[in-house]
Design brief:
With 114 residues, the chain is mainly β. The protein has no helices and 11 strands. The strands form 2 sheets. Strands 2, 4, 5, 6, 9, 10 and 11 form a 7-stranded mixed beta sheet that branches. It has a 4-stranded antiparallel beta sheet with strand order 1-3-8-7, with no helix packed on it.
Length: 114
């Protein structure tokens, strides 16, 4: 069974940086387009970035110029580099692998606060 596991979240001051990782593990892993989302309690899950391949990557307008998505296929890991973090970036961040089947990780908390 294929699973996604996020890591790298934590508490950071405004203006700081974090790098999130999403490892794809299990039998017969097949890398397909993947994405990052985030969610604040009481609000809808929000799309952040998509990695399709090394030449096709997109990020949301709200994080353009600050966040960067990448993937290391050999390590079966997708990354989200987050720079110049702001309090409004505080959320649980989830990774998703587009299927079928559609898979989600369990999330990692990012808190931006002084």
């Amino acid at each position: 069974q294929v699973q996604l596991v996020e890591s790298g979240g934590g508490l950071v001051q405004p203006g700081g940086s974090l790098r999130l990782s999403c490892v794809v593990s299990g039998r017969d892993v097949r890398l397909t387009p993947m994405a990052w989302y985030r969610q604040v309690p009481g609000r809808q899950r929000e799309w952040v970035a998509t990695y399709t391949d090394s030449t096709i990557k997109h990020v949301a307008n709200s994080v353009e110029g600050r966040f960067q998505v990448s993937r290391d296929s050999a390590k079966k890991t997708m990354y989200l580099r987050m720079n110049d973090l702001r309090p409004e970036d505080t959320a649980v961040y989830y990774c998703r692998q587009f299927g079928p089947p559609d898979l989600w990780g369990q999330g990692t908390q990012v808190t931006v606060s002084s």
